Amino acid sequence: RMRGKGAPDPTMFTGLVQTTGRVRRLARRGPGARLELDAALGELVLGESIAVAGACLTVDGIDERGFAADVSAESLACSTLGQLRPGRRVNLERACRLGDRLGGHLVLGHVDGVGRVLEIAPGPRATRLVVAAPEPARRYLAPKGSVAIDGVSLTVNELRPGGAFAVMLVAHTLGRTTLAELRAGDGLNVEADVLARYVAAELGHAGPPWAADVAAPSAARDAAIMAALERGGFLA
Asked: pTM (2 decimals)?
């Protein structure tokens, strides 16, 4: 779980980045670490949750420049947080409050693993970003489904053989997040859609019915999906 000690549970985000912050310091503390960030997020409260590059952390210290949070050994192992250096920009989002508008998708801040940038292709209206998904997230990815990359809610535009997927980044997203700074080979935090987890668990499959061959004809793929849903009782 990508969170520090004492965080209330459950915590939810939308994947709509509110601002970016800069790393002031990352100091190792035993198996974990202490992360200090400069950020303009308004008045913070000790114990509240903030998604830092998509990873849910708990505010454990506040000063006039920003906040500090403890990072667990698990978070360091499953995300890019351990690679942060002073001056590095990170995406930030405060946790949702009951009644807030959900403009992205349900994001928990529980990073599945680190993906790798395979391709960045700027276009006239959007930039195509191709990512090698971490193994734990692959079974939950679906065309037109949701995924969070470094805390940014995006739509899966395409699945590719070998566990890669593509998303499109519009100018607004590039201008308000750190995604414009990505380069081929960079690591990024990937969190699959939580709803896909529950559907996969209910169906009891090792992977989605389209995972074996993402290039299968759409009619055959749709038939496989409908059969799987019927077996799971969703079409009863």
From this structure: 0.81
